[in-house]
Design a protein that fits this description.
With 98 residues, this protein is an alpha+beta fold. 22% of the residues lie in helices and 26% in strands. The protein contains two helices and five strands. The protein starts with a strand and ends in a 9-residue tail after the last strand.
Length: 98
């Protein structure tokens, strides 16, 4: 995958099956199963969200709005068991999400 963002802690690339015109996955370089396993690592969580904010600006969706999503466990739709944060933007989203 072509990286659209990277630093010493996280990297990001476009989702191969996008759910929105802008759909990036932001992942830690270290293997962490899911957000529950990362809960005690506040610095990592800040790094993931900070990267998402930077990518939103780069992709031109920061002003119009974007959604950040963590799926935790199979019932929530998690199919890859390496922590990843979805950034979705470029269209209007409904609530509640499906």
């Amino acid at each position: 995958a072509k990286r659209i963002y990277e630093d010493e802690t996280v990297m990001a690339f476009r989702d191969i099956n996008p759910g929105a015109p802008t759909h990036a996955l932001i992942i830690p370089r270290a293997h962490i199963r899911d957000i529950a396993a990362a809960a005690a690592n506040g610095e990592l969580l800040v790094a993931l969200v900070s990267a998402a904010n930077t990518i939103a600006r780069q992709e031109g969706v920061a002003e119009s709005g974007y959604r950040l999503v963590w799926n935790v466990g199979p019932d929530a739709g998690q199919s890859v068991f390496h922590l990843h944060l979805h950034l979705l933007g470029g269209r209007q989203f409904g609530w509640p999400p499906g």
